[in-house]
Amino acid sequence: MNRRDFLKSTGLVAGASLLPILKHLPANAAAPGGTLVVISGQTINSLDIHRSGTNRASYVVAVNAYDRLVGFGTKTMPDGSLSYDYERIVPELAESWELAEDGMSMTFKLKPEATFWDGKPVRAQDVKWSFDRAVSVGGFPTVQMEAGSLEKPEQFEAVDDRTFKIHFLRKSKLTLPDLAVPVPIVINSEEAKKHATADDPLALEYLHRTPLGSGAFKIERWDAGQQIVFSRNDDWKGGALPAVERVIVRELPSQSTRRALIERGDAHVSPDLAAKDAKEMSAKPNVKVVGTPVENCIYVVGLNFQFEPFKDKNVRHAVAHAIPYEEIFKNAGYERGVPLWGGGPEVTDTAWPQPFRYSTDYDKAKELMAMSGHKDGFEVPLSISLDLAEWMEPAGLLIQEGLARINIKAPIEKIPGANWRTACLVEKRLPLHLENFGGWLNYPCYYFFWAYVNGHLFNSSNYENAEIERLVEETLHMPVEDPEYAPKIRRMIEIAQEDVPRIPLWQPYLDTAMRENVEGYEYWFHRQLDVRPLKLT
Amino acid sequence: MDTSSRLRMILQRLLQAFPSILGVIIVTFLLTRALPGDPAAYFAGPAASAASIEEVRRNLGLDRSLAEQFWLYLGDLARGELGQSISTGQPVLEEVARRLPASLELTLIALLLSCCIAIPLGVLAATRPNSWVDQLCRFVVTAGVSLPTFFTGLLLVFVFYYVLGWAPAPMGRIDIFALPPPHFTGFYTVDALLAGDLETFRAAAAQIVLPAVTLALFTLAPLARMTRASMLQVLGSDFIRTARASGLNRRAVLGKYAFRNAMLPVVTTLGMVFSFSLGANVLVEKVFAWPGIGSYAVEALVVSDYAAVQGFVLTMAILFVLLNLAIDIVYTMIDPRVGMEA
Question: Which residue among A6, A15, A224 places its CB closest to the CB of B90?
Fold first, then answer.
């Protein structure tokens, strides 16, 4: 008698063998054309994007259940997949908008037929209340509004029920796109005010659990930690009515389980795959994997200027030549991304990210080390975040091997996720580290603003360069069409290549797996699933 | 032991538990604060400025002194509040009340399953040392302890869901298109039966089979081992020899005298395995998307979510006090010699 016979004889598997009759219908058969099942590894912790502590996964509510004044259009990528189009702003709640002659204000006309879920019309007063809330609530929403030069309630004016006006603090190309990110949602203010209290004038507690929007989907139920169910708002006026009637987003923490469900066909869409799964699943029948380079996002090696040897440019160049880029991209990135090494010697365009001129060349690296003030090498800890260990650990080990060849000893230091932000970005005390910043607004100047200006959050290298700072200030709000824009950007990229405080490795993909019968998937910079254009065929 | 002295024992035990629970409150409070990491920076989000981090810190009450924070926490506890978890955005009490039954249901079913196999297996192995049953017992014990639960779990998912398609999709406690039964005990299977809803019962039971089997395979080992060892010891003792010599039949010797006496250490082990597996469920919970208490605690720990960690430890402390009490009461029933003085 072997173990299996024993288990059978004792009835241990009896339970399992009863299961065939219990097996439920696969998702698509249960509700033809109607219900889309999405599985996600992250947990939604609030229905209000303005609340402090609301995590990234929760933006899916702001995206699908709320409307903004405007949204982004759609474009087709070279590989045929769809992406949002940051160059084209399209109406959502506003039907038109107009820049004042002096360029210092913008007037929006609201769609007259747009209503909230409770049937009340969307008025300019609602927009004003919502925007006031976003700029005064503090934390991430306020910071994001500031990026578009939207800083004070006085800037927002409800001229009449249908006319909303924004007074600019400065002319900036970032203002209009910043209105299309998930943060500036329009809330049913009349209803929200009923639930506001003296302690909580912004109704944060109420909106945390009860969304009051006008968006394409209402929230049917939210079982925190388990699932969120969206049902279509048939009166939606923000765009074309979504094809699916219901969307269930189930939280499944285990990657392997998510993969099994997609491959078996019990779920339709699984966003945000691990690179390894993306590579392997794309070979499976009936499963599509769509990978889109995450805009304005780069996986980099950061060299901290507070660490003595990294003040030496020869050392930085040596390090940039001693990184085994190709192997890292294969073994840590599973080739799901765009390589950012081995570029030409000259910066010829303003594309960003673009490959830097460095590539793996140990002889050159040794030469550079010999010319530096640190001929005999040194030891420096290489810090990685445990939250991002999936790519950082293999990448870290390969970098360690590469650096060992030029006499730099780099023991790996693993930092728990909760400490990572403090150590890497706030205190900026990690001499050698990996970093993954990506900017929501897709302009090189925006990336440089966050990552190359001294004291700014993502400048984890403590890099300081007066010329870059001047160029960032000049270009940040400048229209892209301005003839001075391109040369300034090229100059910025040139300095970044020469000084290399951040050594780019690759631009990662956002990978989403879906069943063959799911159409209309679109990449978004906020990396959350926009379920509105999805279709089941 | 009569009822009144048993009641006295229960009361006395509960009183004795107070200092230890107070200790647990103080120690967890201090330990969570000693965790590395800055929750304010974490929850302020990636693009937060220094000012917005300070704002979050103020909102969370983390700008106050430790003593002040502790005082406020005690005040909350006195009002029966466990605070609000920042990572899940829900009140801790509500979350624990929802997740604890999920874990308890899974653990209890798994333990029941493993007792049904481990105890007969252990007894058989002890009565026939070195026979094939004994070898089998050894094999099961070794396999049970050496296979990590997440591996067994994934293996079962692979075989019974992915390849054979017998088991339902491992999507948590209930099928994606079914609704949970009306809340009564928080155990879906029990609630569904109470509501007379056989279909929901079947759906909930189908979901729990694989995770329960996974956990049972893991808890089987200590129970079977303990049963076998304890049975062997009892069978070799004088009173069993006397019983046999007196001509009692095998069934009476085994069932009435040996088994009962061998049960004491098994019950102790059972208590330990139960408390251990409530916490060790984490990996099983992850694989099967089971919304239990273990994964909640781990997630909270990783992001320094103070209120959630404190609430979890306190709940577990209270649960253990009650569990130990229950085990002591079971003792007195199995063995009349065990009194509160003993």
Answer: A224
